[in-house]
Amino acid sequence: VQLQASGGGLVQAGGSLRLSCAASGLTFSSYAVGWFRQVPGFEREFIARISRNGYPYYTDPVKDRFTISRDNTENTAYLQMNSLEPEDTAVYYCAAVYDYLGNYNLPNEYDYWGQGTQVTVSS
Prior knowledge:
- About 0% of the residues lie in helices and about 50% in strands.
- It is built from no helices and 11 strands.
- The strands form 2 sheets. Strands 2, 4, 5, 6, 9, 10 and 11 form a 7-stranded mixed sheet that branches. The protein has a 4-stranded antiparallel sheet with strand order 1-3-8-7, with no helix packed on it.
- A hairpin with a 5-residue loop joins strand 5 and strand 6.
- The chain starts with a strand and ends with a strand.
C-alpha cells in the first residue's frame, strides 16, 4: 500500500493550493481519507476527512476555507486550500483507514500514511 501526497509549495497569504493524495495497493473506495498537518515541535493535527461515501468533515480552523474531495476512479483524494494564512504553514499528510463509517480523527486510527508535503504561506 502506498499513499503519495503532493501539491505543496510556497504561496502568499490569501492564495490557494490543491493537495493530492494518490493511493495504490488498496481498494480505495472502501477507505476513508484524512488530512493532517504538523508543525515542528507540535503534535500532528487532524484537519479534514472524507468518508468512503464522499461525506466530508472539517475542523474549525479550516472549515469554509478548505474542501476535501475524492475521485475513486483515479484512487486519489484532494484537499483544495483557499484563503491560506501563515498559520496554515505545516507539513501536510494524507492517511487512509478502512471505513466502517466511523469518525476517524486521531492519527492512530489510520492504517496508512503518505510521506507529507510542505506548505508554506508567506505573509
